[in-house]
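[Solved] Which block belongs to which protein?

Original post:
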Amino acid sequence: MSAPIRPHSPTSPVAAIRAATAAAAVAAVAGCSQTTTTKPEKSPQSTMVGVAKQVQSCWFAKNDPALKGYSMAPEVNSYSGKPRILIVPRNNPAGLPKLVAQAERFNGRTSFTTFGPLLATADGPRLEASLRAWAQGSRTC
């Protein structure tokens, strides 16, 4: 007879490793983080659809050198109420995102947040400024 399979207790070594891995993943993605609010009438989804269009046309269609080796993974149809855009390594699209832009409804307004290690690079301020402008409705590259 084989031993019964028991779930891991919260204090088991496996649970501790899983918790540490999850914490490391969040820390790796967190990087710099800033939040701003958009126009009150804009929903999180419409905000992120506009941002995704601009990211595609201004960064990826124009081969922005700061994003060489990356691709965009839009998640604008979010059931969690937090549509987002992920910038991920092109050779590992399932890996940790290097830049995240997301929107959510907070206190009756749409809150727009960006974070990730790409924001800590020399191109970070430019990338951040573009994302914020596009979240506010700008259509310029």
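(Second protein starts here: sequence line, then its structure tokens.)
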Amino acid sequence: MFVFKRRKEREIQTVKTMIRMYCKAHHHPEGEMCEECAAVFSYAAMKYLHCMFGEEKPVCTVCPVHCYRPEMREKIRVIMRYSGPRMICRHPIMAVDHLILQFLSKRRMDRYLRKVKKIRRKKEERKAHSA
């Protein structure tokens, strides 16, 4: 059942489901995730949990900060391209929830950009004081 209280938990579960769908179709038809896909999930979950935006994080596709390493970003992009269209039929509630979050993330982009600028300004001030 897809009932979670916290948004990050929902997003992590959605990513896990998408990675499992991809892995089942491309690597392990018996349903368990292979090591490579498990590593991608572990990396994605870690990034979600440590996101600088906290509970109000945007969906990663519209985020102004790209925190994934390039090779992991490409892997998750391939997984999302495969699983995304299939989510509507197999997991419609997760898919609609993600689409709503994507819409809201785009509407809140100004807020995210202000936070990024504020954090960068603080980092620059720290560098200036330590130099």
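Accepted answer:
You had them paired correctly. Confirming on the second one: DSSP finds five helices and no strands in the chain.
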